[in-house]
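For practice. Any example?
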Amino acid sequence: MASTLWYVLPTIGALQVLLAVSLTASVNGGTLLVVPHDGSHWLSMRLVVEELGRRGHQVVVVVPEISLVFGGSEGYTLKTYQVPFTKEHFDGTLETVALDAFLEHPPLQQILSLRRLMANVTGIMVTACEHLLHYQELMAYLHAMDFDAILMDPFYPCGTIVADHLSLPTVYFLRTILGGMDETASQSPSPFSYVPKAMSANPDRMTFFQRIKNLMVALSDYWLCYTLYSPFERLASTFLQREVTYKELFSRASIWLVRYDFVFEFPRPVMPNMVFIGGINCATGKPLPQVSFSGSPSIHCLTHSCEVQQATLASHWAYL
């Protein structure tokens, strides 16, 4: 009975969250708090946030004053908080990580390099999160808003600390979490012998030695997670005034909106409160222009250069 309830309750919570944030503009909209992650993560989430605002919901987005791409919009209210680092330091740290991501490394060196670089980013994110949590004026405002739910990118768990503090149902909007924490936090089975780990370069049908390699990568994930998330664990325990592990922080989601398509991933078990929304940030394509010329059927061209090329071909055909 207990195991049955464990599967049912997250689904019930997910339905409540969806009802709270997906009301149409014809009725009273809900109030939604958004704690995003910077960079391309926000570019994907922003489309959803703006659409919720257009549908009549009151959306409040909380971001640091120094960022890569955060900005205001008519679809939501932007609230910022001060951070103790400069724009140059922030951009330089992220640029180093981005450049290293395109370098070819042996698997072990890649893991060590990722750990070192992400530890630097984690230091910045923990500092920013600490300033958010201790910004009393902003936290009082968030309390007074009485939000229905929080939408967040859990790449780093600052938003989960805020959600726990405000006792809000949580919706995750994500592609993945480093170190396989999405599998651990959602309690999705991920047997090492069958599900290839990220950065292992293993196929879904592994040999014995590839499975050993997969196990070694999985063990390194625990090390990576501790490096990245243990500072948030200490911050959360201090702020919430109780012992909290980073696994508990990541595990509080009512629903997971996962930005990939199941058919493009290796087969693996997932929980019923995980919803695949791959392609949600893809813009609707415009109809291709139709070009006709003598002696050939109508064709569709992608660009003006294509039209010129087809016109040139038509002249050659006419000459022949």
User: Anything to note?
Assistant: The beta strands are 31-35, 58-64, 77-81, 149-152, 170-174, 255-258, 274-276, 290-291, 299-300. The first helix runs from residue 2 to 21.
